[in-house]
Amino acid sequence: MAEEKKEFKRSLSHFTDRITADGSSGWPVEAGRYRLVVSRACPWANRALIARRLLGLESAISLAVADPIQDERSWRFTLDPDGRDPVLGIRFLAEAYLAREPGYTGGVSVPAIVDVPSGRLVTNDYPNIPAELATEWAALHRAGAPDLYPRELRDEIDAIAEDIFRDVNNGVYVCGFTRDQAKYERAFTALFDRLDALSERLENRRYLVGDSITVADINLFVTLVRFDAVYHGHFKCNRNKLTEMPVLWAYARDLFQTPGFGDTIDFDHIKRHYYVVHHEINPSGIVPAGPVLTEWTTAHGRESLPGSPFGQGTPPPAPPEAERVPPLG
C-alpha cells in the first residue's frame, strides 16, 4: 500500500483562557502568580520570551526553561536539580496539563502559562500570548516599556502577522514535514515569495509596522534567527540562506542586537532540539557544527532608517543572571 501523503497542519491551542487585567476571565493579572514555561528552542515560546523581556515582566511572571530534548512525555525539566521545576515541583509539563484536564491525551506544547498555586495550566495559546502581555499586563510593565501592540496599528499588525504566520512561521514547518512533493513546492514558493515581499517592505523602513518594534517584528524575528541554523538545510528551505538576503539579514541583525531579542537566543538549544528530536528528518541525530554565529554581531547599518526600537521608551535592563544565555561562539 502506498504511504498516505499528508499536509502538515499545526494544531490549534487547546487551552485558550486569557489572563485579564480586570479578572473577568477568572484568571486575574497578579504579580508572582503565574509561571511561563518555555523551551529556548521553540520559536513560538521565543515570542513570549521576547515580549516578557521587552516589557520588563521578569519579576511579575517567573520563568521555567525546559530541556530542548523531549522524550515520549514531551517537555521535561531535566535542566533543573533533581529533574524538577523548582517552583511547580513537577518533572514534566504534561503534569500541569493533566492538573487542568484529568485524562488529557492531546499535545503538550510551549509556551505554557501555569497557575503556581494550583499547578494547573492556564493557557497554551501561543499566537496571542505576546499581545496579551502587551495589553492586559500593562499595569506591571517596567517604566519605559515599549508599546508592542499600539491600538491605532492593530489592524495592520494583525494583517501582516497573519501573512507571516501562514507563509513563514508555519511555512518552514510545512516544507520540513510534508511528504508530498507538490505540497512542499507550494509551501517553498509561498515562503520565499513572502520573504521577498517582506524584504521589499523593509528596504526603506526599519520595522514592519510603524516606527518602533511591535509584535509583528517579534513574530518574524523568531523564524529568521533560526533560518540558517535549522530551516535552510533541515527543513529544505534552501533557495537562499538568510545571509544571502541582504535586507532581511540586516533587519534580523538589527533586532538580534537590540536588548530583549538576541539575549533570549540559545543556538545550542535550538540546534540540538531540531536535529536530535526530529528523527524522521535527521535519523542520524548529528547536530551540524555550523553556521558561524559571530556574524550576528556584525554591523547592520539600519540605524539610518526612520524609527527607533522602543519609540518613546527605553531599552530593558540586562536579563536576570539566572536567565542569561551563553555568548555566541
UniProtKB/TrEMBL annotation:
Residues 302-329 are annotated as: Disordered. One of its GO terms (molecular function) is glutathione transferase activity. Gene3D superfamilies: 1.20.1050.10, Glutaredoxin (3.40.30.10). It comes from the Bacteria. Residues 147-277 form the GST C-terminal domain. It holds the Pfam family GST_C_2. CDD domains: GST_C_Omega_like (cd03190). The record marks 231, 274 as: Lowers pKa of active site Cys. Keywords: Transferase. PANTHER family: GLUTATHIONE S-TRANSFERASE OMEGA-LIKE 1-RELATED (PTHR32419:SF6), GLUTATHIONYL-HYDROQUINONE REDUCTASE (PTHR32419). This is Putative glutathione S-transferase. It comes from Marinactinospora thermotolerans DSM 45154. The lineage of its organism: Bacteria, Bacillati, Actinomycetota, Actinomycetes, Streptosporangiales.
